[in-house]
Each structure stands twice: as structure tokens, then as C-alpha cells.
Amino acid sequence: MNTTDKTKSQRMPVPFYDGTVTNELSADYILPDTYPDVKQILRVRARPVMIGRFISGKRLEFNGAVDYIVIFSAEAQTDRSDPDNIASKPDTLHAVHFAAEYSGAPGELEHLDSCDISISPRVTACTAKLQNPRKLSIKSTVATDILLTELMSCRPKIEGAKSVEDELRLEVLQKSFPALISKHFIADHEQLSENLEPDASAPAIDEIVSCSAELHFHEAKPSKSSDGFTVALKGEALIDCIYKAIGDAGDYRSFQRKLPLSYMVSADEYAPDFENVLPETLCAAADGILSELNAAVGEDSYGERRILELDMSFDIDIRLMADTLSDVTLDVYSIERETECEQRQLELYSLGKLVPANFSVNESVAREGLNIPEGDWNVVDTAAEVRMSQAAVARGRAQLTGEAAVNCILSDHAGSFASADFTIPVKCELSAGDICEPVSFICGCRTSDLRTRIDSGRISCDFEVSLNALFIRKARVDTVVSVTLSPETRKPPEDAASVILCYPSDGESLWQIAKRYNTTTGAISALNPSMVEAVSVSASGKGQSAEAVGNATGAHVIMIPAGRGPVTGII
Question: What is the pLDDT of residue 167?
């Protein structure tokens, strides 16, 4: 192994656990007295938040919470003692916000004290049911993806060696492999305050029903300079506000806004972890975690209630990634003593490609089957969530497929509300470079610029999707983790010929030939200079020893020296 190569590491990151822990949650919520009875549930949104993790012996335990936002309609309250108010009134729109906690553990595991831990929760399903007019019951499924990585020494353990010379005389076949280094950290707490306003043609705001925010960072660039190790972030906060308008009773509206986000985050704490990585592979991904959002109605310069005063706090979850190059020991033997190798199969992850992309969705679905009552309906607000579930890679292109879950809140002229829930298949094609199967992928998606139209027969939906797709290569390698040398010195055969003529088999490597005849690759190369010119030097620790010499030499004869030949030391 070339210890002067700064891009190679003495220890390589090896995943030893890559799995998912599933939690089935049930949460009941009783409405406070300030809310009217629920008539119909129109929308349920669920967002998982990781709270903490801790290690107890061989157990990794974590806990989190799922934030729920439920939008529902209620019948307007009337004063029965006043005959003038008995006439029917439009329904009202309301939203409640609550949370349910969860916890889990993947079971007993080794190496927890020294491993790198990556935990990412996601909600895979969520349904809501009305138990009675005052009680909501929500069931959801949380899938927590866990990746544990340990740093493993690139050098095998040598047992039975009587001196340092015994180790130096070993013939070691090595090959360089890239291995993914990944570090998660939470950046400093950020705050954002902004005054937003609906379109001039829209009515003023009477009261806010619901205000939500989605944070998306489409750019995360790590860099090393004299100022330190930093990550430059650019993205946007997508704000969706549903409000009751001043004017006619039952008039509810919504508006969406994009707020640009730009931050420079220090990552100096993790600079030593990325000191010896391949610089061209260094990249980062970021996601915003909303911790608090407050919205209030304010007046503009004309005294009209047209200002949404927004204050929000959030954390930024940053993932730094790069490949480090490490020499993996594939085989070991000694020309002087019998050797026994213990092997272990490693599954190595390496960075394939991090691809940001944007694409448009323009689809329509039939009203039939969506349980929308007959009549003319207007769209109050639309929300869409996109999940990519599959990735196919071929010929330098990656095709992601998934679906968009769309929810529309509708109102009619009589002041009643309805909801429409449907899914739309989505597809996106990206440039994948030299990535090939097998790969895994992580994809975060955000929707914006939603526009929805409804007529007598169909609902049409247009929106933009922004995503960051991370492709990770997977490779399985059999590596030597320990070598045991026998105490006895191997005796050379007494009647050995001075030179042996060998006709290599098709695809046979120089390393295999040297091991079969108990000599060294250096000794064979010295006796066959023409063969050295024909075989290209590989990137392995023993150069041409890993190459197939059967094809390179045209199956010509190779001379094998008698005895053990010159000793080569590589450790």
C-alpha cells in the first residue's frame, strides 16, 4: 500500500446495518371547546420529526413525533331563540394542529460506540376518521430508515508472525475501492420573518384558517478555503395560507408564496473526516426542519387587513458526502510458510451522483369515483406530495417513477365544502453518467405553483416538482480480515527444475500463476520482460498482478523461476 498517497485512507467506512424500523401510530384528538363540531374532514397532513437517539449497550433507541394538521368543515352555529337566524348559514372552515410521539429500536447490534449513525423518518400512510363530532382518530405509519457505518482497518490482522520480516515477506494482493463517507449534522437554529400579501384582486383577510410551510434547498455546495470548511445553501420556503375573506359569509380563499433562502453554514467540526477524500466527489444535501410557525393578520398602509405577518423558526439538516479511496486486501500468501486466510464479504457504498432537477406535472382525473357531490364547485386550496419509489438506470440515464398524492378542498355557492383525493403517476428522467445497477437512491421532492381547475367532468392539476436525487453504488467485495502463518517453514522441493514453462489459461492473472508456483509476481516479471510490456499496470497494490495475462500475452509461454525468487515487501 502506498502510504504517501494522501487520497487513500488507512480505515474505510463499511455499512454493517441498513434497515427500516416501522411504527404504526394511532392518535385520538378531542376538539377544544372553542371549536365547533366537525361535519367533514377535508385534509390531513403528517410530518415526522426526529427528537433524539441514544445508545444503551447493544441497543440503538430513537424517539420522534409526527405533527398532524387536520382541516375540517363545521356547520355554522345559529341562535334558535332568534327567528331571523334560523335560516341556513354557510359552513365554516377550521384547522387543528397536534402531535403524536413514537419510539423504536432496530434490535441488538455491535460496534455502536464507534459507528456513524444516520436516521431518517418518513410517513408512508396516514388516514383520519371521525369517531364523533368532537373526536378525531388518526392512524399513520412511520418508516425510519437507519444506516450504521463502522470504520474498518484496511490491513488484515497477522497472526503467527515471529518477526516483522515475516510480515514483510507476505505477498499481498490489494485493489483500491471507493467508499462513501457521510456525516449528518444540524446547523444553527434559523429564523425568518416576512410580511406577505394576497393578490390585489383577492379580498382582504378576515381570519387565518391554516398556514403551512415547506422548506426546500435545491443547492448545497461544500467548499474548503482559508476561511474554513463551509456549506453554501440556497433554496426557498413554500408558504400556503388558507383564510376566510372579508365580505360574504362562507368566502374562503388561499394564496401561495415563495421566500428565497440563502445561508452559509460552518462545517469546520467535520473537516478532519473529509481530509483524505476524493475532492471531485465532495458534495452535500440539505433539508429544512420546521420547528415553529406563527401567522397573524396585519393592516397595510391603507388600513386594510391584507398583510400576513409570518414568523418561522427552523433547523437545517445537512448531509456531507464524499468517497474515500482505500486499498482492500483480496488475497495473501507466503512463499516460505503455509498461510490460512479468513475472509469477510463487505458491502461497500460509494457515491454515484447527486442530481438536482425540476419538472412539470400536467394531468387531469375524472370526477366520477371521487365522491364529489353534483353541482358547481370551486377550488379553495390544493396540496400535493410527490414520492419517487423506483429508479431504473441504463445507458447513462436514470428514470425515476412514483406518484403524486393530491388533495383539493372545494366549496360551492351554498357554502358547503367537499374534498377530492387522488393520485397521479409521475416520471422524471435524469442524466446518470457512468452509474449502473445495482444502485440505491434517496430522493426528496417538493411541489410548488399548484394550479387546479374543476368542471362538470374532470379535475385538472398543474404543478412544479423540485427534487434532489442521490444515487449510491453498491458493491460486494470478499476481503481478507486476518492471516494465520503456520509455525513451520516450508521446504523447497529437492528436484525442482531451474525454469518451469507455463502456458497461462485464458483470463488467468499473474497473481494466480505466482501463487500456484509459490513464487512472486516480481520474480516472474523479471524473467519475462516482454510480458510486462504487454500487460497494463492496474490500480491495485501489486500492479499487473491483478491483470489477466492469459489474454494479454496471447497465451504465450511464461517462464517461472525455480525456488522462491526475490522477496517483495509491501506492508
Answer: 85
Phi-psi category of residue 95: left, alpha or beta, with phi > 0 → left and psi -120 to 50 → alpha: beta
Residue pair 145/119 in contact (Cβ under 8 Å)? The answer is yes
Strand order in the sheet with 135-153: 11-30, 135-153, 116-132
Provide the pairing of β-strand 417-431 with 397-412: antiparallel
The answer to whether 281 and 471 are in contact (CB under 8 A) is no
pLDDT at 56: 86
Q: Which amino acid is at 478?
A: D
The whole-angstrom separation of Cα 348 and Cα 152 is 11
In the predicted structure, residue 330 carries a pLDDT above the cut 70: yes
- Tracing cell 427534487 back to the chain, one arrives at 467
| Alpha helices, H only, 402-520 | 510-516
**How far apart, in whole angstroms, are the C-alpha atoms of residue 421 and residue 174?**
56
Cα gap 38→93, rounded to integer Å: 10
CA torsion sign for 351, 352, 357, 360 is negative
Phi/psi at 523 (5° precision)? -65, -40
Report d(CA 258, CA 463) in Å as an integer. Answer: 14
Distance CA 328, CA 380 (A): 60
Query: Of the candidates 430, 443, 444, 355, which has an alpha carbon nearest to the alpha carbon of residue 393?
Result: 430
- Report yes or no: 99 and 61 within 8 Å, Cβ to Cβ: no
Which is nearest to 427 in space by CA: 397, 454, 451, 391?
A: 391
User: What is the pLDDT of the chain when averaged over all its residues?
Assistant: 87
Distances (CA, A) of 205 to 76, 241, 383, 569: 19, 11, 21, 80
Mean pLDDT confidence for 500-523? 86
Q: How far apart are CA 446 and CA 248, in angstroms?
A: 34
Locus of grid cell 378542498: 409
Instruction: With a cut of 90, say whether residue 141 has pLDDT above it.
Output: yes
**Which pLDDT belongs to residue 78?**
61
Cβ neighbours of 10 (radius 10 Å): 13
User: Which three-class secondary structure state does DSSP give residue 73?
Assistant: strand
The three grid cell numbers given for residue 453, joined into one nine-digit string: 381547475
- Alpha carbon separation from 516 to 124, 253, 336, 407 (Å, rounded): 55, 81, 13, 68
Question: Do 163 and 95 form a contact (C-beta atoms < 8 A)?
Answer: no
**Between 543 and 108, whose confidence is greater?**
108
Global pTM?
A: 0.84
Contact between residue 54 and residue 103 where contact means Cβ atoms under 8 Å apart: no
Three-class SS state of 515? helix
Give the cell for residue 404: 403524486
Please write the tens of the pLDDT for every residue from 273-321.
998 899 999 999 999 999 999 999 999 999 999 999 999 999 999 999 9
567 has pLDDT over 60: no
